[in-house]
Design goal:
The protein is of the alpha+beta class. The protein has two helices and seven strands; from the N terminus they run H-H-E-E-E-E-E-E-E.
Length: 112
């Protein structure tokens, strides 16, 4: 009986100690990994000329391959914009990629 009581006390103590340990929250781990994914391993493809309603502007195009799928990003002046692939027409020309500069900015079109 003493053995059983002793073993129970040790088990309760070990459970209590493991519960007091601090583990990183799931959200902080996820946020860190997403931030790392967004800022690292982008491959520079070159300078592009993107068309919008008032003319054209130059940006820098980057690509990242995740699980065999390509994701594109356009950068200029420290700002990054996600690229959407599709079929677009602007100023009578056809394009296969677009991005929107800022929330209230212009939509730009170009070909990859």
């Amino acid at each position: 009986m003493k053995k059983l009581l002793f073993i129970s006390a040790i088990c309760m103590l070990s459970l209590n100690l493991s519960a007091e340990r601090e583990f990183p929250s799931q959200s902080s781990v996820t946020l860190e990994s997403l931030e790392d994914q967004q800022s690292s391993n982008w491959e520079y493809l070159g300078k592009i000329s993107a068309t919008y309603q008032l003319g054209t502007s130059e940006f820098y195009l980057y690509v990242k391959v995740i699980s065999g799928k390509e994701f594109y990003q356009v950068r200029k002046g420290g700002d990054c914009y996600a690229v959407t692939i599709g079929k677009y027409t602007c100023q009578g020309k056809n394009f296969n990629a677009s991005f929107k500069e800022g929330e209230k900015g212009w939509t730009y079109y170009f070909n990859i």
